[in-house]
Design brief:
CATH topology: Rossmann fold
Oligomer: single chain
Number of domains: 1
CATH architecture: 3-Layer(aba) Sandwich
Largest sheet: 4 strands, parallel
CATH class: Alpha Beta
CATH superfamily: Flavodoxin domain
Radius of gyration: 16 Å
Helix content: 25-40%
């Protein structure tokens, strides 16, 4: 996905894997809006998020919702998300629209600037191998190439207006 967004783009995209970030279940004693973080992992997460100008959240739809690890990571912070442009790439056997609806509400609560374009990638049984891993990311995302380019254009515009 990152390479798909980078094609013909002036922007640089990184992948933040929440498994690698490794945040525990939310353990800050004060609400995030105060930015009085007690734990080093929260301060590190805050600095990492602040180092980016915008976000494309990529996540699966599970049981009509988005993963708890994503909600946990977002809830650790508050002001760090403000005014950052954001888009979504959801995926699943039905594309992820219901998960996107729920997450969009959260992003509004964080005062993020939601882009107009999002991707709902449908992943079928034919797209994955016997271990459940994508066989070919390029062909799976191919039907969404135009939307990915549109997200890049909207992100570029949003960041230019910042």
């Amino acid at each position: 996905m990152r390479d798909s967004l980078r094609e013909d783009s002036d922007l640089d995209y990184d992948l933040l894997d929440l498994a690698e970030v490794g945040l525990p279940f939310l353990d800050e004693p004060r609400k995030a809006a105060l930015q009085r973080y007690e734990h080093d992992h929260t301060r590190a997460w805050s600095q990492l998020v602040q180092s980016y100008h915008g976000f494309v959240f990529v996540f699966p739809q599970y049981n009509w919702g988005y993963p708890a690890v994503l909600k946990n990571a977002v809830d650790y912070l508050y002001r760090e998300w403000h005014e950052r442009p954001a888009s979504l790439l959801t995926y699943g056997t039905r594309g992820g629209g219901k998960a996107a609806e729920q997450f969009i509400s959260v992003l509004h609560g964080l005062h993020m600037r939601l882009l107009d374009t999002h991707v709902e990638a449908v992943i079928t049984e034919q797209d994955v191998d016997e271990d459940g891993q994508l066989r070919d990311l390029y062909s799976t995302l191919q039907p969404n190439r135009d939307l990915l380019r549109k997200i890049d254009a909207e992100m570029t515009e949003a960041l230019t207006k910042s």
